[in-house]
Amino acid sequence: MTWLYCLSALVVLSTSFVIGKRYEPNWASIDSRPIPAWYDEGKLGIFIHFGVFSVPSVGFNSESEWFWNYWKNLKVPAYIDFMNKNYKPDFTYADFAKDFTAEFFDANKWANILNSSGADYIVFTSKHGEGYTNWPSNISFNWNSMAVGPKRDIVGELMEAIRGKTKLHFGLYHCLYEWLHPLYLRDKENNWQTRDFVTKKALPGLYEIVNTYKPDIVWSDGDYEAPDTYWNSTGFLAWLYNDSPVKDIVVTNDRWGIGANCTHGGVWTCRDRYLPGKLQTHKWVNAMTIDRQSWGYRRNADLSQYLSIEEILATFVQTVSCGGNMLMNVGPQKDGIIAPIFEERLGQLGQWLSVNGDAIRGTRPWTTQNDTLTPTVWYTKKASIIYAIVLNWPETDTLKLAAPVSSTSTRVALLGYTGGQFQYQNLPTGGIEIMIPPIAINKMPCQWAWVFTLTNLQNA
Ligand SMILES: *[C@@H]1O[C@H](CO)[C@@H](O)[C@H](O)[C@H]1NC(C)=O
Ligand SMILES: *[C@@H]1O[C@H](CO)[C@@H](O)[C@H](O)[C@H]1NC(C)=O
Ligand SMILES: *[C@@H]1O[C@H](CO)[C@@H](O)[C@H](O)[C@H]1NC(C)=O
Ligand SMILES: *[C@@H]1O[C@H](CO)[C@@H](O)[C@H](O)[C@H]1NC(C)=O
Ligand SMILES: *[C@@H]1O[C@H](CO)[C@@H](O)[C@H](O)[C@H]1NC(C)=O
Where would I find the Glycoside hydrolase family 29 N-terminal domain in this sequence (predicted)? Predict the structure, then answer.
């Protein structure tokens, strides 16, 4: 017993000696932390925006989760008109909260739907710019999901279901700022020289979710208005990386104050729907939405405003080929239902990954991203295999690729296809030409974005 105890204490000591580097509260030190390896393996996360904004759930050529800000701060006419036409004059934004009923919110059902996408993690809005918390926060007495609306701990129920039923990592989004919080407005008026909102509200809430729910991802939103020194972002991150319950596993992003995005922190989100089209040197993420205009649910979205599975796959493949992860957003309804259009897109992506996952999971970027002869072909690499992901099926009986240099033992196959290997020949200008045999449509391995595996290339 004693001996075992000593042994395990030793192991703990030596482990923390190796990985126990302490980070200082400055960007040079914070930025030196490697991104935990799990994050780069899976490539796909699902983002979920849910809150009081899910009640009005409208956006007029803009996102629905900014409703309060557009209506009361920025005074956008479309939002003012909407309120004048449909609500009594004294109706306040807070009045929406009692209709945030979530009566069909079933965390197990969400877990199944989210998992069906083949993703590796989710990121859920614990609190957006409206300040309403989806957990029973001790710092938000009457503006949280236990006090008004669902009367439930939405974050807690979702965490239990995700961790209990799936292998997905559980991440939380947290908005630093709150557009209309009186302390925030006062600090803003004082040109960020006072920090009452930070010390009394923003940071205590952030520490609370990390300590209570131990998220694998802390996805901060705050590349807006105030500098990172106002938020004490490096102070919080030093605690997160050194002493928090998730210090070794947690992944963060870059939205920790004006100008921090695309420069500091963990994974770079840069701007919304970031899709640079070129290989990036720092790990990055494309945070994008299935509803082209909005993160929160939008009742007034029509079908054409939802991305098709072909568009989603084109974005995903390009993102992964250039070294990024994709974080794809769905906005559930105020009653807790994930609309069938979102459910279908998630399931389609999962179906595609069940055939083509080898070309995505655990891959690294290759030296070439998209091909010069057929620019809609994007490459990834794993060990010595190069994957050529073809967004459009060839219209002729050959596919010409400039990047691959064949060797005498190069083999070409179609992922998920059981009809054998494909013939190819070298092109006089370099590259290869793959012969595409006629394939019955019901023998095709998938319906969108096909993957050729190229083994034993000279330049793999
Ligand atoms: C989650 O999805 C994966 C496929 O991506 C599947 O293998 C697994 O069984 C699913 N888990 C649950 C609990 O449905
Ligand atoms: C809120 O405070 C109570 C009492 O101090 C404590 O039991 C609870 O864990 C706290 N909740 C959170 C989310 O920190
Ligand atoms: C910033 O955070 C660190 C770590 O929690 C703390 O020690 C420091 O006092 C904070 N600084 C300010 C100005 O709030
Ligand atoms: C940082 O975010 C702001 C606001 O979203 C955006 O305007 C800016 O382009 C971003 N910076 C970079 C380098 O992407
Ligand atoms: C792909 O490659 C072509 C030619 O090399 C290039 O012009 C194009 O901008 C690239 N990107 C996309 C998104 O097609």
Answer: 20-358
